[in-house]
Write a structure and sequence with these properties.
5-stranded antiparallel beta sheet, alpha/beta, 15 helices, disordered N terminus, 5-stranded parallel beta sheet
């Protein structure tokens, strides 16, 4: 009877997950013996206008990759929210470690929204033990309550997955499957903490686990969603992580809609965009919201903090380091990155859509239904401006690591913390202003002509 009940729970859980996620990614469990608790979709928009977002986590956060993608997105895709972002990643950290330092390092900046991503180090790289789960739950709960006591909403992120045994962790034991079952258990515990404490939840574990499995079948056995060392993701893994957190914020993913009527060659655009001119079937638009690129042409990647944003020219075999690969494994474009073109009253069978320097041919039926420019065009007219914003975000986040780890916890902070805060905040403000200066309206052209 007990085994039948377990199978029933497993079936119901997987059925709920399949209903919530794209069938191409979440079809069946990738980890035998693990039963994921069903995570409901966000019941509210956690992100609010004017939020001060704190992105907290361990060395995976300190890589400043998923945090950089999140800040890029909030800056250029939903600028109407006017969100400010800080990242507080600390290598090797566990939930109790952040709890000890959060007042000094994080709460002093009065965040109104926080994301956490702990569990990788908390699971101790070993098969699950009740002791591990109890310590994780108690400290994660205390972190959530501390944020809430200071007026901040929280999105509790689960840990991700591992791809191979981390032999650089001397105390690691068990198998990869053992570690992922342990991390999956912490994922369930993080979900329970979020539900019990009235917080949001970002499921990082299941999307990464399944994206890793699908990625290996699609790109080859060298594809590693958890990164080359099996723990620290490259851009593909961080792209999945950013997707998980942005979805958890409750964002609707609508960047804009351009509606063209070919009967009178007119165009209507949604808020965040304006029509500059209309000549025949060529329209010039000024946009204050960008779609999010999966890559940038190499010549557009500016000098600055590395690792560089993934280049479109990256050859096959490097998908582990590719955002483009991540966006093929999770529905990022469909759910978070919709810049729609709808064309009505076409009389030709097919039309060539030219957007900036690139063009593609679509049927009249496809255009009438609507195409997602962000998904259809890899290199977009926003690319150069986006690259400048991304470089400025990378520079600011690199400084935030130095500000907390080397200054607040270094000689300057020990001598006079308030002075260290004042001086570093002045420097950080210059980096914030550089992001604002880089984010400018982009003027681009869109033409719809009958295909030859």
């Amino acid at each position: 009877m007990r085994s039948k009940s377990l199978l029933l729970i497993l079936g119901l859980s997987l059925g709920l997950i399949a209903c919530q996620a794209p069938r191409a990614v979440f079809q069946e469990p990738a980890l035998p013996g693990y039963v994921p608790l069903p995570a409901p979709p966000p019941s509210r928009t956690w992100l609010q206008p004017g939020d001060r977002l704190a992105i907290c986590g361990d060395s995976i956060t300190e890589q400043r990759m998923y945090s950089r993608l999140i800040e890029d997105y909030l800056t250029v895709c939903v600028p109407q929210y006017r969100v400010s972002v800080r990242q507080f990643g600390w290598s090797g950290e566990r939930a109790p470690g952040f709890l000890r330092r959060m007042t000094n390092d994080c709460l002093r900046f009065q965040p109104t929204l926080a994301t956490t991503c702990y569990g990788m180090n908390d699971h101790e790289y070993r098969p699950y033990e009740e002791r591990i789960g109890r310590t994780y739950t108690e400290n994660l709960t205390a972190v959530v309550r501390a944020f809430q006591a200071h007026g901040a909403h929280v999105i509790v992120g689960s840990p991700g997955c591992v791809g191979k045994m981390p032999h650089w962790v001397k105390s690691a034991s068990g198998t990869v499957e053992d570690l992922n079952r342990s991390l999956g258990t912490l994922r369930n515990l993080a979900l329970q903490v979020a539900q019990r404490e009235g917080a949001g939840f970002a499921d990082v574990f299941l999307p990464m686990l399944r994206a890793g499995e699908v990625g290996r079948s699609r790109f080859g056995t060298n594809f590693m969603i958890a990164g080359a060392d099996g723990v620290h993701p490259d851009w593909a893994g961080h792209g999945v992580m950013a997707y998980a957190f942005l979805k958890a914020m409750g964002l609707d993913g609508h960047i804009g809609t351009f509606t063209v009527d070919l009967s009178d060659n007119s165009i209507r655009v949604s808020p965040g965009h304006e029509v500059v001119s209309s000549v025949a079937r060529t329209f010039t638009i000024r946009s204050r919201r960008y779609s999010f690129p999966a890559c940038l042409s190499q010549e557009l990647i500016p000098d600055g903090p590395r690792p560089a944003y993934p280049a479109c020219e990256m050859p096959p075999g490097n998908e582990t380091a590719s955002l483009r690969a991540a966006f093929q494994l999770v529905p990022f474009h469909r759910e978070l990155n919709r810049l729609m073109l709808v064309v009505k009253n076409g009389t030709a069978d097919r039309y060539r859509v030219r957007w900036g320097a690139a063009s593609k041919v679509f049927t009249t039926a496809q255009l009438a239904q609507g195409i997602n420019l962000a998904e259809e065009f890899e290199v977009t007219p926003f690319a150069a401006a986006f690259a400048r914003v991304d470089a400025a975000v990378a520079a600011k986040q690199a400084f935030e690591t130095r500000q907390v780890k080397q200054i607040f916890h270094g000689p300057e902070g020990r001598a006079d913390m308030e002075k260290a805060v004042r001086e570093t905040e002045a420097e950080r403000e210059r980096l914030v202003q550089a992001i604002r200066a880089a984010f400018v309206p982009v003027t681009h052209t869109l033409s719809i002509l009958p295909a030859d």
